[in-house]
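User: Can you help me understand a structure? I only have the sequence.
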Amino acid sequence: MTDSPHAGAEGDLDVDALTEAIENFNRFYIRLPTLQKLSFTTLSVLDTLAVGGPARLTDLAKNEQISQPGLTQLVTRLERDGLVERRPDPTDGRAVLIHITEDGRQIGRARHDDRARHLLPLLAQLTPEERQAIAGALPALSRLAEIGTRSRR
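Assistant: Let's start by predicting it. Here is the structure, written out as tokens:
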């Protein structure tokens, strides 16, 4: 336990240390070599659609934190490449929903497989205790991501 101003409500978690660990891991993780060379924003949009389902352009722009004109251009390229498609919104005839295609899903699966392939030999360099600690943290990290995702809606 530390005297960090960001300690958890019970003082059982140093949020600064958690933030630093996640940032360090993300900095490394997002740069793992992959076979598909796509921009971070492209991959993020495809992931958002794969996990969250179809979305309106305005909602995607807000989620991805980019301008609506920028997102519209990106979606046009993704649609041209067969990775997404626009379909009428069944609840609002004036609006469209962006859907990921099977080719778009395949990009996400390939990226996941590439990253797992690169992580395996690195994980082998950890001690059994370190691997066990990571395994033990997975449910809590997944739950934290779920809570964070839900709170952004």
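Now, to help you interpret it: The mean pLDDT is 88. Helices lie at 15-29, 40-52, 57-64, 68-80, 102-123, 128-151. Let me know which part you'd like to focus on.
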